[in-house]
Design goal:
Blueprint: H1 5-21, E1 36-40, E2 43-47, H2 53-66
Antiparallel strand pairs: 1-2
Helix pairs in contact: 1-2
């Protein structure tokens, strides 16, 4: 198995679960998938500023879990 494929697959699985859990965000019709865009080279998220900070933090935590800070752009 490709060494990078495993973390991406695991992250995708957790994002799928998160997307099912966050159907209605703080009373607005936004779904979790409308709040972020994932880019893989280097691994990072782009966030919609109209979405809750708690979702942004959850996504940052997931990214750090699968791609330590020296491998992603969280600290930049």
């Amino acid at each position: 198995m490709d060494i990078l494929k495993e973390p991406f697959d695991s992250l995708r699985d957790e994002l799928d679960a998160l997307n099912r859990d966050w159907r209605d965000i703080e009373g607005s019709p936004l779904s979790a998938t409308q709040c972020y865009h994932f880019e893989s080279n280097p691994p990072h998220f782009l966030f919609n500023v109209n979405c809750p900070a708690s979702l942004e933090q959850k996504l940052k935590d997931l990214l750090t879990k699968y791609f330590p800070e020296n491998e992603n752009r969280l600290s930049q």
